[in-house]
UniProtKB/TrEMBL annotation:
One of its GO terms (cellular component) is plasma membrane. Residues 45-326 form the ABC transporter substrate-binding protein PnrA-like domain. Gene3D superfamilies: 3.40.50.2300. This is Simple sugar transport system substrate-binding protein. It comes from the Bacteria. The keyword rRNA-binding does not apply. InterPro entries: ABC-Purine-Binding, Peripla_BP_I, PnrA-like, TAT_signal. It comes from Pseudochelatococcus contaminans. Pfam families: Bmp. Keywords: Signal, Sugar transport, Transport.
Length: 370
């Protein structure tokens, strides 16, 4: 299956041929025997749109692994197309519209910046079903889904609080949107529970995938005193810099340990497969409705990869306690008191931030430098 940034891969005409009536002696015999014509069911056509390359070993890679899980689960019942390296904005609208016009009945638009384009195309194709990842706009034929990435950040912040000797963490971040901000905040708060003096230095790249910029940011952060690197960008470049400079690092979206066996302490792994399989099933059985799903550690969409042997047993246990507490509901990553960068109390002691407020969060916690 081929793909490109703008041109949607060619779609097989196999489904069209299956619409043809069976003819010939065998078909005639079947008609006489059953009293009706026989039709083969067309496969459900599904489109996936990725903001980065499937080989980024990060976010788009994780979605493409899930796409493959869909194909494995449903076989010939589905016909799947994907397009990678789609820029947020006009490019994405053009690609989504092309997928819809080619008869894809279910389209997964997997990046925040695809939100408005998805809504616009959905209005033009009311019979198609759309699913948009990490956004907040719904429509009669548009559902939304997201991962509680911040839960994994809280687990890793616990590890970093124990492992950092300098007390400075470097954070290579993509865009200042709620998804990324809540991750930075959850990580920082968890690290500060271990070491209240921890500082987290953030460099914003305003891109999801640019290995050169990611590497340069990691170098600058290490030069600025960071001995642990965190990333919310998609290539392993920052991880490789940490490996070469003797720092620690955490992987993004998939286990990146093969790129930095010494530096890689753990990774947040995104497993979108069960969600995609569930949604495809609902289309096939006629029960699909636009929903708002936000899955995390409890549901298994967010997972923690194995810890590096360099992480002491007691630190692993402390991190697992955070993970298990989030899963069973006894621990909320955003429990007050919480102050912002200016020292203003945002969450009183004993209170937590609601999901609705998390999804629009636009402030960073005390101890974050950006």
């Amino acid at each position: 299956m081929s793909s490109s940034k703008i041109i949607v891969p060619e779609v097989s005409t196999r489904g069209i041929s299956r619409r043809s009536l069976l003819i010939g002696a065998g078909a005639a015999a079947l008609v006489l025997a059953s009293g009706s014509m026989a039709f083969a069911q067309d496969p459900l056509k599904i489109g996936f749109v990725y903001v980065g390359p499937i080989g980024d070993h990060g976010y788009s890679y994780s979605h493409d692994q899930a796409r493959q899980a869909v194909e494995k689960e449903f076989g010939d019942r589905v016909k799947v197309t994907f397009v990678e390296n789609v820029k947020e904005g006009p490019d994405s609208e053009r690609v989504i519209r092309q997928l819809a016009s080619e008869g894809n009945e279910l389209i997964f638009a997997t990046s925040f910046g695809f939100m408005q384009p998805t809504i616009r195309v959905a209005r033009q194709f009311p019979k198609a079903k759309f699913e948009h990842a990490t956004g907040y706009m719904k429509a009669p034929n548009v559902g939304i889904y997201n991962g509680r990435f911040h839960e994994g950040r809280a687990v890793h912040g616990t590890v970093a609080g124990h492992m950092s000797k300098s007390g400075v963490i470097g954070y290579v971040a993509s865009f200042p949107i709620p998804e990324v901000i809540m991750g930075i905040n959850a990580f920082t708060l968890a690290a500060q529970k271990v070491n209240p003096d921890i500082k987290v230095k953030v460099i914003w790249l305003n891109t999801w995938y640019d290995p050169g910029k990611e590497a340069d940011a990691a170098k600058a952060l290490i030069d600025g005193g960071a001995d642990v690197i965190v990333q919310h960008v998609d290539s392993p470049a920052a991880m490789q810099v940490a490996e070469s400079r003797g720092a620690y690092a955490f992987g993004q979206a998939s286990d990146m340990s093969r790129f930095a066996p010494n530096a890689h302490l753990s990774a947040i792994v995104y497993d979108w497969g069960p969600y995609y399989i569930e949604r495809v099933n609902k289309v096939l059985d006629g029960t699909w409705e636009p929903e708002d799903k936000w899955w995390g550690l409890k549901e298994g969409l967010i997972q923690i990869s194995p810890y590096n042997d360099k992480v002491p047993e007691d630190v692993q246990q402390a991190a697992d306690a955070v993970k298990n507490g989030i899963i069973d509901g006894s621990l909320h990553p955003f429990t007050g008191p919480i102050k912002d960068q200016k020292g203003v109390e945002r969450v009183p002691a004993g209170e937590t931030i609601s999901d609705a407020d998390l999804l629009k969060i636009d402030w960073l916690v005390e101890g974050v430098q950006s």
